[in-house]
Specification:
The chain contains 13 helices and 12 strands. By secondary structure, the chain is of the alpha/beta class. It has 2 domains: 137 residues, Glycogen Phosphorylase B (Rossmann fold, 3-Layer(aba) Sandwich); 178 residues, 3-Layer(aba) Sandwich (Rossmann fold), CATH 3.40.50. The strands form 2 sheets. The protein has a 6-stranded parallel sheet with strand order 3-2-1-4-5-6, with helices on both faces. Helix 2 runs parallel beside helix 5 and helix 6 crosses helix 9. It is globular, with a radius of gyration of 21 Å.
Length: 339
């Protein structure tokens, strides 16, 4: 079929949206004249707005009311896309896909929902788990997209004002001639979050590497933890916690010599840069979510309960993540910084 207009849907979250970008790039190469729209929730639009592979961003309020849903649905139905591709299958994404006026609906084979899709793609494989990027790519392959090598992540660049903000921070704190370690202190849930004492121990060890400066990064929700770390530490730590949008975070990581963090959205943003990564995995398997095509060292523990749903820890202490030692992180960071 001729594809003139396609709507791709991935509403959230950071890492999941980033992992769709190789599929976008491959689709754009195959259909250079197509009009590609991307439906995303408002807090995450910085990850796709300005991406040269996209023609239009449709932003949904994260807590959309019925009138918001109907307004956006009217816009989608009015456009009459040739294809609607649902990268996720969550409730809102499914409803937009189901109710759109389109010739073709493509999505993963998800219980109860896939019967409404025209093309259903298996998310799992019988032999072994595959990376989420490859799962996303299977959806565009249904549209005759071929690639010998799935591309790397592609995120929109920071604008001039955002770049200036990062440069001013680096200059103000005299970081230009040091090796910056961007240390992500937060995570999406308690299964992948270090406690205060572990965080302090990690920064204590990293500070022993000559010529380095440690800069804490994280979201607004990590500000209490940031305050506790800075109060507890006697080291000259720097912080950008809660101060950066997603494009600025990518810009700062790209100017760093090392990124350290848990399996999280910022880790995937780091994978869009050339900065090496120490990635720590707990309940999720690295084979499925590791930094895509990035220079990285993965640290994870082999527990039979992995992967889990991250709803309840059968041990009660999140040991798959907490058993990663600060010394392991330090040794991995030192190795990557040595080149």
């Amino acid at each position: 079929m001729e594809i003139k207009k396609i709507l791709m849907i991935r509403l959230k979250r950071i890492g999941d949206i980033v992992m769709t970008t190789p599929a976008l790039s491959a689709f754009r190469e195959r259909y250079p004249q197509a009009h590609i729209s991307y439906l995303v929730e408002e807090p995450y639009k910085d990850l796709v707005e300005g991406n040269s592979d996209l023609d239009e961003i449709i932003a949904v309020p994260s807590h959309a009311k019925i009138r918001d849903f109907l307004r956006i649905l009217h816009r989608i139905r009015k456009t009459r896309y040739d294809v609607v591709l649902d990268f996720h299958g969550g409730p809102k994404a499914f409803l937009f896909t189901l109710l759109a006026k389109t010739q073709l609906r493509i999505g993963h084979k998800i219980r109860y929902k896939h019967i409404f899709y025209d093309v259903k793609i298996e998310r799992k494989t019988k032999d072994k788990p595959i990376h989420s990027v490859e799962n996303h790519f299977k959806l565009v392959k249904a549209l005759d997209v071929k690639a010998d090598q799935i591309p790397r992540f592609k995120l929109p660049p920071a604008n001039k004002i955002e770049i200036l903000k990062i440069e001013e921070f680096i200059n103000k704190n005299k970081l230009r001639n040091t090796k910056i370690i961007a240390f992500h202190i937060g995570a999406g849930n308690e299964f992948r979050k270090w406690d205060l004492m572990r965080l302090k121990r990690i920064t204590d060890l990293l500070s022993q590497i000559p010529g380095t400066s440690i800069v804490l990064v994280g979201g607004v929700a990590d500000r209490i933890l940031e305050t506790q770390i800075l109060k507890k530490s006697s080291l000259p730590l720097f912080s950008l916690v809660g101060q950066l949008n997603l494009r600025e975070l990518q810009e700062f990581i790209s100017r760093s010599s090392l990124f350290i963090g848990p399996d999280s959205g910022p880790m995937h943003i780091a994978a869009a840069t050339e900065t090496p990564i120490v990635a720590c995995f707990g309940p999720a398997l690295s084979v499925t979510f590791r930094p895509w095509k990035a220079s990285s060292i993965i640290i994870e523990k082999d527990y039979p309960c992995r992967p889990c749903s991250q709803k309840k820890c059968i041990y009660g202490d999140f040991r798959c993540f907490q058993d990663i030692t600060p010394d392991e992180i330090y040794q991995a960071g030192r190795f990557l910084l040595s080149g």
